[in-house]
Amino acid sequence: MNLKPAWRRYALFAVLALTSNVAAALEPVEVQRWQHDLAVYRQTLEARHIRLYHRISKTEFTAALAGLENALPRLNEQQIVVELMRITRLVGDGHTHLAYWDAEHHRYPIAFRSIEGELRVVRTTPAFRQLLGSKLVAVDGMAASKLQEQLAPVAQVVENAQSLRRQTANHANVAEVLYGLGVTRQPRQARFEFVDDVGKPHAALLTALRSDDYYEQLSATIAPDTVPLGRKVAEVSNRLWLSADPAQATAYLYFAQYPSFPEMERFAAKVQSYLRKHRIRKLIIDLRENGGGDFFVGLSFAHQMILVDELDWNGGIYALIGPTTFSAGMSNAAQFRQLFNATLVGEPTGANPVGYQDMDGFVLPHSKRRVNYSKRMYRFDVPSADGLQPDKFVPTTWADLRRGVDAALAWALADRR
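Predicted structure:
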């Protein structure tokens, strides 16, 4: 990342802050509390981050915080949080972030995915099912391209171009972020404009939902969940399970979340037993939705798989990866390539193979905002600022997603090495 553009973007904020809505600005006592929070923020990061100034200099970081502190009397809560997100991004590693999602927040009832440079609606509530698959055109009159530019320097959990696209889409429906950026005119209501694949425009005045309600109500999806190879034969949860087709000697492992060590040990034992009993030769491990956890839990799974002699260890193991593959998910993908001789299939990961990980955090005393930071430096592959690279690049296209085609999985299933 080039620091100068990021720093200049922050400097522009000092000018924009002068035009903030004074009526919505903080009371003096709240300004004092935020001043204390900012002091705790800097002191704690300096004390606990393994190397806070690996990307930005201490002088620049201090000046950015001073600029925010000076602007506090002219800002509202949402603007302060967004600017603190912007400053946190300057640190330069995805595990150092302001976890706004740990506090109560609101999301508009549409989930986006960045595909071929456009924000597509991939999930929504049944009431807005007609928006599925459509492209975002504008929010409260701001063009989608401009919106992405505004979100880019504040989106959290970003390490490279892949995670930036992923997180820009993930932040594009957060009411507090959009309002804090000045994208929307009202805190929790905005006009969204879309266009479908035949050019028909759609518009909707949307009201943001509490985050808990959002996750419960977004049941309409562009790509309904499926179970490759027929049925599940072992399962911990809907985020970790195994399906298989014994007739094809093939198994598919959906690995999107890390369980506890004991749960993984029991699950891995069941998987090992099934693979041996049915003489499975090909194993496909899907890490594309794995955003992280404890990679040592993944290694405990690897320990039991190594004992399955029936697997084809000379090219019969695959790991699917993509922009959402982050942190421990990326680490395990790199380790499976080494330990399993696995072929990585899909797109580059959202996390870099050499970088700062092992997240811990603290809570700011007054605002109660959680700040996470990195404690360790890991080297899992050759250094790359563009993610762990697949051995077989299979991009996600809108044409495939619209038709329900999983191109990366199809390639791994068809490979006959």
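Summary: Confidence is low (pLDDT under 50) at residues 1-12, 14-23.
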